[in-house]
Amino acid sequence: MRFRLLKKNLLALLGVFFVVVTLLFSTRVLIVSDNDTSGAHHGNHAVHLFKFGSLPELTRSVYAANYKQCIHNADKFPGEPHLVLVVQVHNRPEYLRLLIKSLEKAAEVHSFLLIFSHDYFSEEINAIVQGITFCKVLQIYFPFSTQLYPNEFPGQDPRDCPRDISKDDAVNTGCLNAEHPDSYGHYREAFITQTKHHWWWKLHFVWERVQAMQGYSGFVIFLEEDNYILPDFFHFYKSMMEYRKNSCPDCDMLALGNHNGLTNFNQLFDKVMTTGWMSTKHNIGMAVSKEVYYKLMGCSSNFCTYDDYNWDWTLQHLSGTCISKPLKVLVAQGSRVLHTGDCGLHQKQNCRPEWALQRVEEGLQMIKDNLFPPSLVLSGAEAAEHNAHMKNGGWGDVRDHILCNNYAKRL
Asked: Radius of gyration of the chain from Cα atoms?
């Protein structure tokens, strides 16, 4: 009898152990001990040292860094951040340097927390970010980067169907995703799908998993590596927040940038307008509250299954459909965020960041007297309506849908 009880208890313990190990491996969270020597200390917090020697080492580095969340410069700039900026970084180090140069010149930057979210991992990019000395910095790493999965999903599996093969031929050849082309009959390309994956993962990870965000009540501003902010960026953000509080409490989001560059800036420097959120106009310098984040996460299934590889066009689709009341945005008419990138996802050649910097510096000389406006003026108010569009495809594979929906569960 005693033996049967011991045997039953042993089996129960083994069952619990199996479940725990399975969960740890399925979420791929690495428990890092207090005696871990993989970080070099900068002030009060360790900066995790990546190991780039092999794919397994790189993968372990990614998960360890996301677990440890080492804040660089935390001892130099104590206290809670007044503003959180999240920068999505791929592999354009020269443009990233321009963004950091602009951040360094921004008023009150010492009160910022900069979060750099990477989907490409290199010693050069790490060195650029870890060279920042003017504010607190956190690096997070997209754990489903195609760099970590070069020959399997979510990377490009050699058994995947070629992009332009017909469905009949795909079925006959037996390629993996033959049953799931997009709306236009094309099969997935891993490098095309990664940006939307990264954006959705980052949105959730920042609001839910970043420890330094606990208790933060402000908006989070989303930037990209080829953006450039103006010196009065934070001043204008605070003015927009005050205007929203007093005159537009139903404004869901802020857009500190637009795609007009510095055109007519000296006439628009203190102007704002309200309108419905649109992908082609309001996806630069976008400020999101936690309330809007919750609205978006409530539409996770819609976001993750909508057949458009662009996160911003997908967001426009949600505004007025799954999110029943279209998202209303307060927009800076004189852009405080510039787009310097002359190449990117679809344009790989003739990237000249030095030309972009020259244009920006010449433009700043022309507008410098109209920075830091004392107050804001409403220049227009348009109805916030659902703006339907033709989806772009590229997001028909059910594996993308499942992975995207699992970010809230597997991080």
From this structure: 23
Max distance between CA atoms of the chain, in angstroms, equals 90
Integer angstrom CA distances of residue 313 from 10, 56, 158, 319, 387: 54, 35, 29, 10, 10
Q: Which helix (H) or strand (E) holds 179?
A: none
* Tally of CA atoms within 13 A in the half-sphere of 359 that contains its CB: 14
- Give the integer Cα–Cα distance in Å for 239 and 401: 39
Residue ranges, the chain, pLDDT below 50: 1-44, 46, 345-346, 411
- Measured between alpha carbons, how far is 367 from 264 in angstroms, rounded to an integer? 10
Give the integer Cα–Cα distance in Å for 105 and 233: 10
- The answer to whether 108 and 137 have CB atoms below 8 angstroms apart is no
* Tokens, residue 41: 């200390």
H-assigned helices in 29-82: 55-68
Cα separation, 47 vs 73, whole angstroms: 10
For the chain, the straight-line distance linking the first and the last C-alpha, in angstroms and rounded, comes to 44
Mind listing the pLDDT tens digit for each residue in 215-230? 899 999 999 999 999 9
- Selection from 329, 129, 318, 290 nearest residue 204 by Cα: 290
Q: What is the tens place of the pLDDT at every residue in 330-362?
A: 999 999 999 998 665 445 556 778 888 999 999
Q: What 3 state SS string does 180-240 have?
A: CCCCCCCCCCHHHHHHHHHHHHHHHHHHHCCHHHCCCCCCEEEEECCEEECCCHHHHHHHH
Place of tokens 């849908």: 401
